[in-house]
Automatic annotation (TrEMBL):
Non-essential, abundant cell division factor that is required for proper Z-ring formation. It is recruited early to the divisome by direct interaction with FtsZ, stimulating Z-ring assembly and thereby promoting cell division earlier in the cell cycle. Its recruitment to the Z-ring requires functional FtsA or ZipA. GO terms for cellular component: cytoplasm. It comes from Buttiauxella agrestis ATCC 33320. The lineage of its organism: Bacteria, Pseudomonadati, Pseudomonadota, Gammaproteobacteria, Enterobacterales. HAMAP family: ZapB. Residues 36-46 have a biased composition (Low complexity). Residues 36-57 are annotated as: Disordered. Keywords: Cell cycle, Cell division, Coiled coil, Cytoplasm, Septation. This is Cell division protein ZapB. The gene is zapB.
Amino acid sequence: MSFEVFEKLEAKVQQAIDTITLLQMEIEELKETNNNLSQQVQQSQSNHEELVRENNSLKEQQHVWQDRLHALLGKMEEV
């Protein structure tokens, strides 16, 4: 009788060990996924910042060209 109880206990312990092992593997996979996603977020932020800088630069260039165009149009009206 006690041998059967011991076998059931041993089976439950082994099942618990297997479950813990699987959960540890899943945790490692999730950590790796999290690290990859963090890197992607950092890259996206960097790309966004670069695009914002480029956009600001292009807006400045546009304003310079508009000012030049207005100046030329003003000179043409004077003539």
